[in-house]
Amino acid sequence: MATTSDLRTNIIIRYNGTLHRVVEFHHHAPGNWRAMVIMKLKNVQTGKVIEDRVRAGSDIEIVRVDKRPMQFLYRDGDTYHFMDNETFEQIELTEDTIGDPAKFMKDGEMADILFYDDNQILGVEVPFFVTLEVTEASVAVRGDTATNITKPVTLETGAVIQVPAFVNQGDVVRVDTRTGDYIERVK
């Protein structure tokens, strides 16, 4: 059995009878009291985030999750279609299952589908950074470049992000899929 010292970010644990992803955790030792671990957990089924604390050294149950690389084929409304490149099996997932990174997924890109017990899909892990083309951008006003002025742009996937004023339509930018933040302009 694993203990709280085995906790890592993004692992799946069974907590209070349901599956949760560890969002963050930290060890806390308040003076003369017993040490504790404060955990922020996200329920895999509902997406609800809870924060709880347990005594340091307590037993936890880490759930074994299988990752299968699959290719994102296309989007049809709120449904995303993926294909296993080895077996050519196709699956459909809703936008809720994928989460916020869904808006940065390009056709043909690879993603890891997380399976529990070979049939229950827990979620999708997309690459942390993607490069996307800017399809719509307003023109920067002269004089706005003196400070850190940002403007909204639309990317080829339809996502809208804030970028510096010097980014124009047709530029390719790198985006962090975890936060939706602009990283850099790519040549």
Automatic annotation (TrEMBL):
Belongs to the elongation factor P family. The keyword Protein biosynthesis applies. HAMAP family: EF_P (MF_00141). It is found in: Cytoplasm. GO terms for cellular component: cytosol. Residues 67-121 form the Translation elongation factor P/YeiP central domain. Keywords: Cytoplasm, Elongation factor, Protein biosynthesis. NCBIfam families: efp (TIGR00038), PRK00529.1 (NF001810). GO terms for biological process: peptide biosynthetic process. It comes from the Bacteria. This is Elongation factor P. Pathway: Protein biosynthesis; polypeptide chain elongation. SMART domains: EFP, Elong-fact-P_C. Its main location: cytoplasm. It comes from Kouleothrix aurantiaca. The keyword ATP-binding does not apply. Pfam families: EFP (PF01132), EFP_N (PF08207), Elong-fact-P_C (PF09285). One of its GO terms (molecular function) is translation elongation factor activity. Involved in peptide bond synthesis. Stimulates efficient translation and peptide-bond synthesis on native or reconstituted 70S ribosomes in vitro. Probably functions indirectly by altering the affinity of the ribosome for aminoacyl-tRNA, thus increasing their reactivity as acceptors for peptidyl transferase. Residues 130-185 form the Elongation factor P C-terminal domain.
